[in-house]
Specification:
10 helices, about 220 residues, homodimer, about 15% strand, two-stranded antiparallel ribbon, alpha/beta
């Protein structure tokens, strides 16, 4: 395939910043702003203008002197790099409160990700419906992944169930895991499964630190 | 107050890593491991040993050559720096699915944070109970914060309601906001409110990027 991102590997640090650009650019498009300078973007995003120029140059998003960046072009390039248009499919395993918060969350659709199936182990939960999806038995998840070429499994399951569930998934064709279980999952070396561990508590603790500092100085 | 963190301001990058140390150290304590070398910690955490030594030296967590770090001491120092023992209080505004996922989540208690009140605008939700908390009317949140010296407000509300809600909170004695609304909230310059914006979508997109890369190379 002829894809820009294959010409040059973009650094992980830049990739981590791209979703933020994506969000800001989407906001600009919504507000009918079609051009933006690195200086303006810098003020909005609280990143230095030189960092922005460096980041965007990585994938050919060159601004024009005195004219700025083409917002729609940048947006589409970033969408492309992030795989937003690649028709990624996902399932959610664990339909507790966090699972439910995600099922109805527009964040998948906004990024071109289609939720194809919901799974749980609780007999009271299996068979309940969310939109046009009916919760299936978690023991059928592995088969479902292989049959339906599912790309990503979202794990909203208790910590205690995380490693066993992952071990089962590792035997399927799954490509990525979005892990909310608070267990740190590591991929075995002979597999190529991308794992994104979400640790909400880390973000909470960073906030607590700041708040504790304020309390002490008061 | 005689607090180590006041002697030397710890850099933001180190603070961001501390919750990970906190998690790993807690795990070690659970497994009755009382000593660990920077090399072992490095393998577990996937951070270089020299980075670990640098980070831990920041707050006086000096390891002993050939003997390693005292796990409990490090854990207690990090808890202290992160404000875990400071008895931080919080309320949750917005008892939809994400709010519910947080109400019942042990992540607050584990970090010494007490949830003091729940709030919503929906008359059907007001009056429902979670444990020993009854959901109150969101219009009473500001008064509750001031009366009860609440430190942190968790915003699990729709994006459209975020700025107005924040403007109301900014007039109270609140010290921090943990913001799940997907709206980027900025603190006015004349206020000192710490804001932690959670963007789950950013983490999802980083995963999508990796998955899209794998799909292309297959």
């Amino acid at each position: 395939m002829n894809n820009k991102q294959n010409d040059k590997k973009i650094s992980n640090a830049v990739i981590r910043r791209l979703p933020r650009y994506f969000r800001y650019l989407r906001e600009l498009i919504r507000n009918d702003i079609m051009r933006i300078s690195s200086r303006e973007l810098s003020e909005k995003m609280n990143i230095t203008a030189s960092q922005i120029r460096q980041d965007l140059n990585c994938f050919g998003g060159f601004g024009q002197q005195g004219y700025g960046y083409n917002v729609k072009f940048l947006y589409s390039e970033i969408s492309h790099i992030l795989g937003v248009e690649n028709g990624i499919t996902a399932i959610i395993i664990g339909i507790g409160n966090m699972g439910k918060a995600l099922v109805n969350n527009p964040l998948f659709e906004k990024r071109g990700i289609k939720i194809m199936g919901l799974f749980d182990t609780d007999p009271d939960v299996i068979g309940t419906t969310y939109g046009d999806l009916t919760v299936m038995d978690a023991k059928d998840a592995a088969g479902f992944i292989d049959e339906n070429f599912i790309d990503i499994a979202v794990l909203t399951i208790p910590k205690s169930a995380a490693q066993d569930t992952f071990n089962e998934l590792a035997e399927t064709s799954i490509l990525g895991i979005w892990n909310f279980s608070n267990a740190e999952i590591k991929c075995p070396e002979n597999k190529d499964i991308k794992i994104e561990n979400v640790h909400l508590g880390d973000s909470l603790m960073a906030l607590c630190y700041e708040v504790a500092q304020t309390k002490e100085s008061n």
